[in-house]
Design brief:
Distance between the termini: 35 Å
Largest sheet: none
Number of domains: 2
Number of helices: 9
Helix content: over 70%
Strand content: under 5%
Number of strands: 0
Order of helices and strands: HHHHHHHHH
Structural class: mainly alpha
Shape: elongated
Length: 176
């Protein structure tokens, strides 16, 4: 794969990671049931019929799973059950794209996700806003923007970022 191809896939992986956060922070989170308590073993019989159905492949070995694994599975199942059909479809599509990434691309996406998660809420909001702005461009506009950025020298990139910051400040957005 060429360097440009790898960079493009890495950029898509980063966008994917941001998309995960956006999906998780939207209606799915608002509608999700309360989080599972401390990592104590959960008896299979205490799960709801819907949870048992979703976790059926673990039914026979549930009691032998470590408590923290039970809790992770249960949290994910509850999140899944709280989703609308449209949210489930989008989650399945994102997972399919994730599976297609190379291990290096997955690691890069994880690093970018952790970096994003460590940002203050106002900077996270700006990242989401920029992500939505980028997604609203036509495919041709996105490609031109990618090419312009990839072909720019570090100095040109810095000037591009500075111009954008000034433009955002004029529009009433606080400096980043």
């Amino acid at each position: 794969m060429s360097n440009a191809g790898y960079t493009r896939r890495a950029a898509l992986a980063a966008l994917f990671a941001a998309g995960i956060h956006i999906a998780a922070s939207g209606r799915a989170r608002a509608a999700a049931p309360p989080p599972v308590e401390a990592a104590a073993p959960t008896p299979w019989a205490s799960l709801s019929p819907e949870e048992q159905k979703a976790l059926h492949r673990y039914g026979e070995k549930w009691s032998s799973l470590p408590a923290d694994q039970q809790q992770r599975l249960l949290r994910g199942t509850r999140r899944w059950l709280a989703m609308t059909p449209e949210q489930r479809q989008k989650a399945q599509e994102r997972y399919a794209r994730w599976k297609d990434l190379s291990p290096e691309q997955k690691e890069l996406a994880r690093k970018r996700w952790h970096k994003y998660r460590d940002l203050p809420p106002e900077q996270q909001a700006r990242v989401r806003e920029n992500y939505h702005r980028f997604k609203n461009l036509t495919p041709e506009q996105r490609q031109r923007l990618r090419e312009r950025w990839q072909n720019a020298t570090p100095e040109e990139r810095q000037r591009m970022l500075e111009r954008r910051r000034k433009r955002m400040e004029r529009q009433g957005h606080p400096p980043q």
